[in-house]
Amino acid sequence: MSTLxxxxxxxxxxxxxxxxxxxxxxxxxxxxxxxxxxxxxxxxFPIAEIRAAGYGALWQGQTxxxxxxxxARGSDPVESRRGLPGDPADKQSRYLEAAAHGVMVGCLYxxxxxPQPGPKFDYKLxxxxxxxxxxxxxxxxxxxxxxxxxxxxxxxxxxxxxxRSWRKDALxxxxxxxxxxxxLAQGWTDALRHRHPDERIYTFWDYxxxxxxxxxxxxxxxxxxSADLAPRLEDANVGRWVRDLPxxxxxxxxxxxxxQKSSAPKKAARKRARGKS
Length: 277
Fold this sequence. Notes:
Elements: E1 3-10, H1 18-28, E2 32-36, H2 47-52, E3 55-60, E4 68-73, E5 78-82, E6 95-100, E7 103-109, H3 119-140, E8 145-150, H4 174-184, E9 189-190, H5 191-195, E10 221-225, E11 233-238, H6 240-243, E12 254-259, H7 264-276
Parallel strand pairs: 1-2, 7-8
Antiparallel strand pairs: 1-12, 2-4, 3-4, 5-6, 6-7, 8-10, 9-10, 11-12
Helix pairs in contact: 3-4
InterPro entries: AP_endonuc_1 (IPR004808), AP_endonuclease_F1_BS (IPR020847), AP_endonuclease_F1_CS (IPR020848), Endo/exonu/phosph_ase_sf (IPR036691), Endo/exonuclease/phosphatase (IPR005135), ExoIII-like (IPR037493)
Family: Belongs to the DNA repair enzymes AP/ExoA family.
Protein name: Exodeoxyribonuclease III
C-alpha cells in the first residue's frame, strides 16, 4: 500500500451498529480502526463478522457501556497493553494498545466526566493525568505512534457549533482543555486541526434538538501523531456520510492517511557505499 489509512469511530453499541460498521469498512477500507463504546461483553464481540470483512481484531469489552477495540485490515494487531497504567483498581474498559502495519496505536475512550463538579469529573481528570504520563513514554520511545479515540474534550471554542449552552459541560471545562493542551505540548500533532486549521470540523452531533440536520456539532474525536508520523500526514477528515445512515451512532468516523515510510534513502546509501568499496 502506498498510504496507510487509520480511523477512529465511537460506534455507540457494536451489536446494534454492526451493519453500519461493516458497510463503512467495505466502502472506506481503513487499514487500522480504533473503536470505542462497544457496549458489549467480550464474548459478544462480533469477531466472525469482522474477520469475514477482512480484519483481525483485539478488543476489551464491558457489559452495557465502555469497551474499545483495534482492527487491522488483512492482519492481526499485536497487543502491547490492555488498560491504562497507573490505577490497578480501575476496571473500566477504556484503553487498548497494539502494533499494526508498522504503527503503534493507542485506542482510548476518555471518561465523559458529567455531571461536574463531582466524582465523575474527578475520575475524568485523574484518568487524563494517567494518559498524559503514559503518552509521554510513548512519545519518547521513538516509535511511530498514533493516539486515537473519543477524548471527550472540545479543545477550543472553534471546535463546537456554539459554546454558550455547553459552558457547564465537562467537555468544555478549563481543566479538561488544559489537560488536552498539556498532552499536545509533549509534541503530538492534532491531525484534524493540523490539516484543517481554519475550518469548523465536527465528529459528534447530539441526537437531540436536530443537531445533525443543523450541523450543530462538536469535535471530540482526535488522532494525535508522534513526531516521526506528523511529516507523513497526507490527509485527515471525517466520514460524515456514516452519520447520515439510518440508526447511526452520534459520532462519525474521523480518519487520516499517512504516507508509507520510504526505504529509498537506505537503498541509495547502500549503493553509494558499494561504489566506494
